Amino acid sequence: MENKTGKYFKYAIGEIILVVIGILIALSINNWNTIRLQQKDSLELSKRLHEENIANIKELKIGMETLKKTKAANINLLNLMGKDYINKSHHTLDSLIYIVIAYPDFNVKASVLTEAISTGKISIFKSSQLKSKLYPIPPLLQLVQTRETNIEEDLADNFFPFMYKNYSMRKMDFNFSSSKNKLGPSVFDTFDGRRILNNFEFENLLDNLYFVRNGLTLHYEELLKGFEEFSVLLEKEINE
To answer: Which of 35, 41, 90, 137 has the greatest CB tally within 10 Å of its CB?
Structure first.
């Protein structure tokens, strides 16, 4: 009986050990599968974010180039201001104003970025540095869009109303717009728009536009730096 009891006891211990081993193996397989799926999700998300980020860098650089041209035109117009406007070129004035009234419109793509943050998928990234670079981007995007709206509103509420009363927009568009053949020349040929170069309000409008655009330039540069640093970390995440 003692021999049988000992055998049964050993058998029970063996069964318990086998069950424990089986459970550990199952947990190990489950953990491995979970890690594998997380790595797959991380890689997929990294690729999508990188693609979106590259597109944003491209669009942002286009916006920065537009902003650079409008600021240069801003300064050139301010340098033309004065009582000797009669000696200034109609064509030069038209061309500079045509550039000044343009405004950058950064068409940001943020669907993947929003998804990564709102769903908590950002937690699957291995790099803590990558996470720290991602979070500051949305507030910067919001700030840039706000500044762009400010410029658009300033043009619509202040600059254009002044120009409508003091300048021949049709004449300018006839010289530079792609729709000039449909518009035709202005019937007010004797109107001298150069007089705005001796107008105090026009000078103030140009001055304000320059400072607003200069502020947007700084935000663009900060955002571009963030995008580029984020892109480098995403590439590292993908390659690892």
So the answer is: 137
Structural domain spans, the chain: 2-239
pLDDT in the model for residue 30: 64
**6 pLDDT higher than 60:** no
Question: pTM here?
Answer: 0.78
Tokens of 228: 């580029």
Greatest alpha-carbon pair distance for the chain in Å reads 127
Q: What is the pLDDT of residues 14-60, one digit of tens each?
A: 677 766 776 767 676 666 666 566 667 778 888 999 999 999 999 99
Asked whether the beta carbons of 108 and 146 are under 8 A apart, the reply is no
Report the interhelical angle of 90-100 vs 169-176 (nearest 10°).
90
Q: Is 63 exposed, middle or buried (0-12, 13-18, 19+ CB in 10 A)?
A: buried
Q: Which amino acid is at 145?
A: Q
Cβ atoms of 122 and 51 closer than 8 Å: no
Q: How far, CA to CA in Å, does 103 sit from each of 92, 141, 221?
A: 19, 17, 17
Other beta carbons within 10 angstroms of residue 84's beta carbon come to 11
Q: What is the pLDDT of residue 7?
A: 61
Query: Angle at the Cα of 142 (from 140 to 145), degrees rounded to 5?
Result: 110
